[in-house]
Specification:
There is one protein chain. The chain is of the alpha+beta class and 74 residues long. The protein is 42% helix and 11% strand. The strands form 2 sheets. A two-stranded antiparallel ribbon has the order 1-2. A two-stranded antiparallel ribbon has the order 3-4. A hairpin with a 6-residue loop joins β1 and β2. The longest helix has 12 residues. GO terms for molecular function: DNA-binding transcription factor activity, RNA polymerase II-specific; RNA polymerase II transcription regulatory region sequence-specific DNA binding; zinc ion binding.
Length: 74
């Protein structure tokens, strides 16, 4: 099945060998596995803090820029 099909079917064919947690795609398993290995390949150039995946680094960078891309509707 393709990645999109796993999302719709709810199947999680990729399982972590360390803890048994399962995932819909291999990339999610890869980033999860970094929790066990301690690998944090994405580092903030401003403060040196490191992250297991690119999206976490992108969110973190907003702290330094002051950018607030999300709007609260309440």
């Amino acid at each position: 099945l393709t990645r999109r099909q796993h999302i719709y079917t709810g199947k999680r064919p990729y399982t972590c060998g360390d803890c048994g947690k399962s995932f819909r795609d291999d990339y999610d398993l890869l980033t999860h596995h970094r929790i066990h290995t301690g690998e944090r390949p994405y580092t903030c150039g401003e403060c040196g803090k490191s992250f297991t995946d690119r999206s976490a680094l992108r969110r973190h960078r907003l702290i330094h820029t002051g950018e607030r891309p999300y709007t609260c509707w309440e």
